[in-house]
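Quick illustration, no need to memorize.
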Amino acid sequence: MAKHTVEKIGGTSIADTDVVVKNVLIGDRQGDQLYNRAFVVSAYAGVTDDLLEHKKSGEPGVYAMFAGADSEWAWGDAITKVGERMRAKNAQVFGDTAELKTADNFVRERIEGVRSCLLDLHRLCSFGHFQLQEHLITVREMLSALGEAQSAFNTALLLQKKGVHATFVDLTGWRDEGEAPSLDERIGAAFADIDLTTELPIVTGYAHCREGMLRLYDRGYTEVTFSRIAVLTEASEAIIHKEFHLSSADPKVVGENAVRKIGRTNYDVADQLSNMGMEAVHPRAAKGLRQADIPLRVKNTFDPKDEGTVIRGDYVSDTPRAEIVTGIKGVFALEVFDQDMVGVKGYDAGVLDALARHKVRIISKVSNANAITHYVAASMKLVRRVMAELETNFEGAAISVRKVSIVTAIGSDLAVPGLTATAVAALANASVDLLGVQQMMRNVDIQFIVDEADFDDAIRALHAALVENSPVAAAAAADKVSEPA
């Protein structure tokens, strides 16, 4: 098979259609240069939030309304509004052309098909023998598919209009009959008859499969689809197009002139970023690429001349240094203190069971002779439920919770002499009260626990000390991106 790339376009990027066509899909390419690529696309920005629930605020979308409503009016109105929003996007992409009617018909068929299914399910579950809860994951999967189907269909249609031999590859299983295939089987069948040297596949980020994409990966399913396509087609490189550079910190916090593009790093660093909620790539997607020895390039859609950041499995910086300073707010430090814990094997198993039962995400944990603290990302309501269970199960223990932030320095090699001392001193000079420090022997990250009010100050202080004013800053600036072998 000819050397090819598999590329993923994020929701914010694909929503800016003109820029994506100009900077990514076509640009200056002509003839054969247009091919030997496959694109996996996310839904247009905001559409999946409307279909499920808002990723950050939790504001209910169609799914949340359907799951909690006693009648179809709330979710019925919501899905109508999603359809209107989709058609408005079609008009923005195609204007007053013949393709607009084709795109609107596609949206109408999908929206009304899903509406019909939900109405039938709602009526069926009005009978006691059928429980809605048993079908909700299927509903969530079906709704998720709508957004990616529209953006992929539109992108292929637009490229065809511009003379590109683009192929819409629908992995959503729309109107499939029989048992769903595995993810690999679904991808294999879809690509079996595609000639990448003469066709440009535009693929839905959602893939209906036996495993259940949302059950396993929740909202990260698009990158998992992207990763499996790269692995199964033996791509030479995987590329993610985002609306920003992968940088040493958030420019909104430390300033545009202070941040540096990372340039090169490894999958360990990508995993630490994911743990902080700053995903360069979904951890399960990264795992597949790492195992297949496929490099991942993260590029800025709006800066096409820049080569981006290359992530490899075997990369280690020439000079030990901190590459990124980032963090996560709204973390709860859940502490279990018990004098009887000393010497008891497996004491924390009960704590872990409670957290797992309530599906609370653990960011990190630390323990000593008589206390275990889990730093978790969850709502206060969920944390209180866990606390109530722990108070019942551990009668002699004192259970407490505090809202904090975690700020972390990350690098492919953090074995810098005096790094911890430099960081702690920088925080002290910035009047940041340090609540805890965690560092592992692997030397990939070091975490600082701070009060939530000190989050931005801690980011700025650590970035200035470890990146901007570091003695190895010159080495970092010289560490340029190179093409993969």
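The domain at 5-243 is CATH 3.40.1160.10 (Carbamate kinase).
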